[in-house]
Each structure stands twice: as structure tokens, then as C-alpha cells.
Amino acid sequence: MDVNELQQAAEKWIDENQPRWSAWCAQIFDFAETAWREYRSSAFYVELLTKEGFEVEVGSAGMPTAFCARWTNGDKSHGDGGPILGGYVEYDAIPGNCQAPVPHPQPRDGLSRFAPGHTDPHSALGVGALIGFLALKAVMTENNIAGSIKLFGEPAEKVCGSKPFHAAKGYYDELDAAFSFHPAYMLPLSNTCRWNIHCGGNYGKVYTFLCDDPRGWNEDAKAPIPLAHATARAPGATDALMTMYQLSKTTRDSMLSHTGFWSLNEAILIGGQATADNLPPSISQIAYACRAPKIDMLEKVFSVLDRNARLSAEAAFCRVVETWVSKTRPGLANLAFADLTYKNIERIGGPVMGDEAKSFARDIQSSLGVDPMDEPFMAEVSETISPEAAEAEIRQMLPPDFDNFTNDDYVEYTWHTPTVRFYIGRPMLKAPAAGYTYPDWAMNALGGYPATIDPMTAVAGKVIATTALDLLMDPQTLDAIKAEFKERTGGGIGGTSWKAPLLEADAQPPVDIRWPEYVSTPQGENHWWIGKQAENIETPA
């Protein structure tokens, strides 16, 4: 069979297996577990891949919900075993976005609206990549094509927390090429590939304040118990946290004054650990994450945050422990790989929404008081745009000295192997008027309803499978993208233009921090750690 026939066979496999993988996608959507706590989602993939004949390392790079799965066709003991092609699945969700796949705001059964939900959605991102590689595996097996597939389970993408640790520990080094798929999240990046402008870097860190030796100014040496009940409470961990929170707000403008396209966000993970008594809280944690197009910008921001943390700890009689969550490099382009991939996107075409999908979209519009449209989806859901044309539009938004924009930790792959970053159109509703914005729940519902999300998932899988077959069947094409990678990195890993991982090889992922998660209680299994009572309190008349 020639490459065209092989590609047709891969696309046919995806179409014929649609009922199976649609159910997988719906299951991951319903699990909706958050960063570092994707226990059921990870186990689901591990079990499935094991049944498919992959050798799976569970807990790769020290992350319990990560995995590295490998399948090889051919005997490597007899010469060249063929290329090693890589990719990944993601499955983490975001707290506060719990939405059922229904056309009105409603949490999934038995859960609070504070529980997590898939927004991008990673449920379809992961399954789209999975079926691409499973279709590739089926064609390779049927036609005795030598090569290996290395598929990673990447948790905690929303905090950019997995890929930097895999990269630092060398998991990507043997890959000949890697695929990075993401549902469209900003226009014009829909049904296209990244060209020169890739995502920027991300730094994330947790500051833990520990009050080991609480001291106050009103201590009474005659009191039999220090910090007796009549004595004012000494400063403690919460005071340190709040001091840093306010101090960092105050110094934010001077971190990177008069520059844009960067963001700094914080989240309080642990606060207090004390009752209403006058004992000082002994521990608190605050996490900061910064996105910026340049590494030197990130270094400046965290130099301020580190100083603020030390000063805040000293003021509250605490010490501070710093834990890195993420350190990613800006992405590295590979134009030959992007061009090859886009040809398949253009040939396959963007997702096409059927009658059931349109009916569901109209129901959403009706529930929002919007007149239902004959064509409720944006044209960009189905239209393709060349990488060069998409980049020209993005370039108009950026300062001339910025070569990176937005943020995602796929960038770690780009420094270890030729990597293509491509986007497929997700279901996006057409606005009834200029300036109208649909609520988040509407996008989340569309991402979980099979008729609206499956078309995107199918196209993504077909793009991966068919482009991978191009690489397997045409060694010159693979050689070309590898040559570009070597040129951009000054000869490859360790070359003159090579950017090494920003985390050390012995860095440990922050899996032991108290991240939000589902918990089991006497009330039942898998309760979200923020209960339902707060949202059920009625406002007095």
C-alpha cells in the first residue's frame, strides 16, 4: 500500500471506532480531576493502553498520575527499529467549572458548582491524541511498518507542572518527532499550526510559611503558659501569607513596568491551620504563576516575589520554603513539520457540525435569551487557515521584539525533538451582536456533549495518524524536520543554541502539596473538597 492508502486506512479506523472513543471522551469529561490529583483519569488511560499492548511506566518522573507508554513494531535487535514518534494526553480539569453536558447552567450529578470541569477541554484533547496513535498502531501492525510510539500521560497542564519534570529527567530525548494537539482557544489559531511564534515560558512556585517559633510583643514571662488565653495572638503563618499577598500586589507594577503580554496570578492553597483560639497559625501556602514571552522577564518577576517572601516571613516570625511547580522554556519552531502537518489539516478539513450539534447549540442560545440561529457556530470552527496567515494576524498584536505569545508547557518537547503544535476548531458559538460574550458554562457544556465535541476529536486524531504515516513512509521528510531541529539548536541537544531544562534532573515534582481534589467522606465517594452548602444559602429577603 502507498502512503495515501495507509492514511485512508487510519482515517477509516477512527471513523469505525467512533462509538468507543466517544464514550472514552465522555468518561474523562465526567471524571474532571484537577492538577496532580487525576487518579481515575490516569488509571483509565493506563488500563486502556495496557490492553492495547503498550508497556506502561506508571508514575513517570516521580508523578503518581503521570505515565509513559511505549509500543514497538518490529525487532530492534536486528538493526534499525524505525523512528520513535511521540505525543501526549492530558486530563486535568479546573476547579469552579463543573458543568453537565446540558444546554443550561447545571453542575454534573451530585457535585457542587465549585467542583472542577473541563474547559479547553482536556478530555477531548487527550482522546484526540490517543485515537490518532491507536489508528497509527493499527495501520503499522496490519502493514508491518517498523517504528515505535511513545505516548505520555501529562498531568497538571493547567499549572504547567508535568512536562518540565519529564523533560528534565530525559524522557523526551530519544524521540524522533512529537505531536502537540490543542483545541482552538484563540483566533485565528483554529485548524492550523504554530509557525515561528510559539508559546512563551511559565514559572510557577509555591511559598510555604512555617511558624516554628511563634513570638509576640506582649508575652508575659510570669504566665505559666506562653501565649496564654488573655495574651494577644502572636504573628504567624497567615500573617506572613497576607503580608506577601499585599506586598506583591504593591510591587507588581514595578516587576515589569510598562510592558504587556505577561500575567501574574496567585492562589492560596493552605491558610490558617488554627482555630479561633489565640495560637498563631503554624503553616500557610500561596502559589504564584507567571506567564511571559521571555525568560528574563520571568526571572525579574520571581526575584521580586522571592524577596517579598523573605521579608514577609521575617515580619511574622516565620521561615519560608520555596517549591518550584513549573519552569518552562519558550517554544522552538519547526517550520518543515508545521508545513507537513498543515497539508493534512487542509486535506482532511476542519470539523463539520451536524444537525444534532446545531440543535444543542440553539438550545444553549435559547436558554440565554439569544434568538436561535440557523448556523449557530462560528465559521472558524470548520475553516482552515495557513500557519503563515495565522501568524501574520498574531504578529499585529505583538511588539516587534516579542517572538512568543500565550503559554502552554508543550514547549518542553520542542527543545528535545522536532515538535509540531497544531490546533483544531472546537465548538464555538456565533455571537448575536458585536461585543457579546457567551458565559463559560456554555463553552464547557459544548466540550462535553458528544455531537459537538466528537467532530474536533476525530479530526485531531486523523491529523496525527496521517502525518505520522508521512514520517514513517518517507525517511527524507523526517530527515528534513530533524535537520531543521539540529540547525535551530546548534547541532541538537547540547548544541550552541540549545536551551537546557530550567529544572535540575533531580528536581522533585510538587505532588505532596495540598492541591484541590475529590475526597471520600462518610457522605460518600468523590465529594469535592468544597461542599455544596455555601451555594445553597439563600439571601435574606
Give a short synopsis of this structure:
The protein is α/β, with parallel strands linked by helices. It has helices at 3-16, 18-31, 39-51, 122-142, 163-168, 237-255, 295-315, 335-348, 355-367, 387-395, 411-414, 440-448, 450-473, 475-488, 533-536; strands at 33-34, 55-58, 67-73, 84-90, 92-93, 147-154, 177-183, 192-193, 198-210, 263-270, 283-292, 319-327, 404-407, 419-424, 518-521, 524-528. Strand 2 (55-58) and strand 3 (67-73) form a beta hairpin.
**How is the largest sheet built, in terms of strand order?**
2-3-6-4-7-14-8
Strand content: 15-25%
Cα separation of the termini: 74 Å
**How big is the Rg?**
25 Å
* Largest sheet, strands/sense/barrel: 7 strands, mixed
Describe the structure in your own words.
The protein is an alpha/beta fold. The chain has helices at residues 3-16, 18-31, 39-51, 122-142, 163-168, 237-255, 295-315, 335-348, 355-367, 387-395, 411-414, 440-448, 450-473, 475-488, 533-536; strands spanning 33-34, 55-58, 67-73, 84-90, 92-93, 147-154, 177-183, 192-193, 198-210, 263-270, 283-292, 319-327, 404-407, 419-424, 518-521, 524-528. The protein has 15 helices and 16 strands. Strands 2-3-6-4-7-14-8 form a 7-stranded mixed beta sheet. Strands 9, 10, 11, 12 and 13 form a 5-stranded mixed beta sheet that branches. Helix 2 runs antiparallel to helix 4 (122-142). The longest helix is centred in the C-terminal third of the chain and has 24 residues, at 450-473. Mean pLDDT is 92; it is low at 537-541.
